[in-house]
Design brief:
By secondary structure, the chain is of the alpha+beta class. It has seven helices and eleven strands. It has a single domain, classed as NADH Oxidase (3-Layer(aba) Sandwich). It binds flavin mononucleotide.
């Protein structure tokens, strides 16, 4: 009877959490992350399309663009961009390989999304989960203006629709490659950023890579555990103004 009651309570709790949103309850954040939401939610992205510009056309059209219209991106745009960044493209001998190369296929990079203007997605900071091609909510609210200040007052960032922020968990790579693994992380971030540039060109979106930011403040904004994870590089994405 006691067991039945516990199961019923758990089911009722899950039903309430689901009713608050059309997204699925995922996990509870650690208690020391006070700004984080109580129940993280997960949003499945549409399947990415395998069409668009040729790679040659995308290379020709790629440019760093810093002026954006205040228009939102769609979930379809987001799906393409995150797939280009770290989507799973192949599974080989049980291990999943991604869109960008990674030394030893160790994948030290994590992808965060700062979503201020995306139709169908609540404003907030999300983490990309390649395995399910979904994003998980980390914290709610608009953050691009705060990000502009963190990036040494590059205020054009506030006008973007979203930012894709790469962080690294260096131990994933250094446990195999020692100190040399630290270099690999920055090389890998370059691969990911170029994929985002080319995908943006193909979608006729505007992007720019940003390497100038205050580490401590960005760690705080992303609510990451700074003992193991560090921000590396980011891309701002928007609808081009011209
Ligand atoms: C490692 C790196 C860091 C960069 N950081 C910034 C930045 O903080 N802010 C910015 O507006 N552009 C930044 N850029 C973009 C460059 O300014 C841009 O690539 C350069 O002006 C060449 O223009 P193109 O990308 O259109 O060819 C960065 C580019 C790289 C590769």
């Amino acid at each position: 009877m006691k067991r039945f009651l516990m199961v019923a309570l758990l089911m009722a709790y899950t039903a309430v959490a689901c009713a608050q949103s059309d997204v699925h309850p995922q996990h509870t954040q650690p208690q020391n992350q006070q700004e984080s939401v109580q129940i993280a939610v997960s949003v499945e992205l549409p399947k990415p399309e395998m069409s668009g510009l040729t790679v040659e056309q995308a290379i020709m059209q790629r440019r760093s663009v810093r002026t954006y219209l205040p228009n939102p991106l769609t979930l379809a745009h987001l799906s393409q961009l995150l797939f280009a960044a770290q989507g799973i493209t192949h599974t080989e001998n049980g291990s999943a390989l991604r869109s960008a190369p990674s030394a030893g296929a160790l994948y030290p990079l994590e992808i965060y999304l700062v979503a201020d203007r995306i139709t169908g997605l609540e404003k907030g900071i999300y983490k990309y989960i390649p395995q399910s091609h979904s994003v998980e909510l980390i914290s709610r609210g608009e953050h691009l203006e705060e990000l502009s200040v963190i990036c040494y007052n590059q205020m054009f960032i506030a006008n973007g629709s979203c930012a894709i922020v790469m962080t690294a968990i260096p131990s994933r790579t250094t446990r195999v490659y020692n100190e040399r693994g630290l270099r690999y992380i920055y090389m890998e971030a370059g691969h990911v950023s170029e994929n985002i540039y080319l995908q943006s060109a193909s979608l006729q979106l505007a992007t720019v890579a940003v390497g100038a930011f205050r580490d401590q403040q960005l760690k705080k904004m992303l609510l990451i555990d700074e003992s193991e994870e560090t921000p590396v590089y980011l891309n701002i994405i928007g609808v081009p103004a011209q």
